[in-house]
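Exercise 7b. Backbone tokens:
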């Protein structure tokens, strides 16, 4: 029987995180070296949104540069990790058994919400990667259920990753508010850390009513939803390690959370 792997939530920040690692990049790289080697990495990213749920079955996923107006260096980066069709088949089985309208997708590659953070975790591109799409009508409660449906994969050697951003106000990012925005973002980050450490599903689902500055931190929910997804996939009895990735551009927090399996919690 495989050792149950942790489940991760990572903040993938701006696409420039690929070439400007700041604090978070080296910390993710260290985490990748410390984790048990996974059979595959399964990523939920807000940059692949579909009607219903799709699972990428691509054996050799393309590196997708789904952004514009950034340095040319970014568009030259390739992350040639193989896909994981067998894991994709198992994910489809689990999703359908849990009542999700899940279909295979043999065309999708890896958007930057997947390859940018996974490239920091596993820079050699030697671990297979696949994605599960985010349904367009997903809400936080549904994200928990989606993660819970896929949770058995963590016991089968798959590293489940919710890739989003713990704060994600693109208007303020583009306006370069700098330190002026740090106060509200830091308050939201502190709240989120407390909620994940307690596995507080109620708080993470009802974040718009319970978290400070929630609507400013997340004008849209897409980059928040990978967090309740990760919570749903995680071992509810395990502890949580917070990786403080710092604050970039004044308002984009780069926290990552490692939802440890119970048996590994005090290793």
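Sequence design result:
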């Amino acid at each position: 029987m495989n050792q149950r792997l942790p489940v991760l939530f990572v903040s993938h920040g701006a696409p420039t995180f690929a070439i400007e690692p700041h604090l978070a990049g080296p910390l993710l790289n260290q985490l990748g070296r410390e984790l048990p080697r996974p059979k595959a990495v399964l990523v939920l990213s807000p940059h692949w949104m579909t009607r219903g749920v799709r699972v990428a079955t691509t054996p050799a996923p393309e590196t997708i540069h789904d952004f514009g107006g950034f340095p040319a260096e970014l568009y030259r980066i390739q992350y040639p990790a193989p896909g994981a069709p067998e894991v994709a088949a198992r994910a489809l089985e689990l999703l359908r058994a849990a009542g999700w309208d899940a279909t295979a997708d043999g065309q999708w590659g890896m958007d930057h919400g997947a390859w940018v953070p996974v490239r920091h975790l596993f820079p050699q591109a030697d671990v297979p990667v696949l994605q599960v799409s985010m349904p367009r009508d997903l809400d936080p409660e549904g994200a928990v259920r989606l993660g819970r449906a896929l949770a058995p994969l963590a016991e089968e050697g798959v590293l489940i990753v919710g890739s989003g951003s713990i704060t994600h106000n693109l208007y303020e990012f583009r306006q370069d508010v700098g330190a002026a925005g740090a106060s509200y973002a830091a308050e939201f980050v502190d709240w989120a850390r407390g909620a994940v450490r307690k596995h507080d599903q109620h708080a993470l689902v009802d974040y718009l009513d319970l978290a400070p500055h929630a609507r400013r931190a997340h004008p849209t929910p897409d980059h928040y939803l990978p967090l309740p997804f990760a919570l749903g996939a995680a071992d509810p009895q395990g502890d949580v390690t917070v990786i403080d990735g710092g604050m970039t551009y004044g308002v984009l927090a780069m926290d990552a959370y490692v939802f440890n399996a119970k048996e590994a919690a005090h290793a």
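Instructor comment: The chain has one domain: 7-49+87-99+131-264. The chain is about 35% helix and 20% strand.
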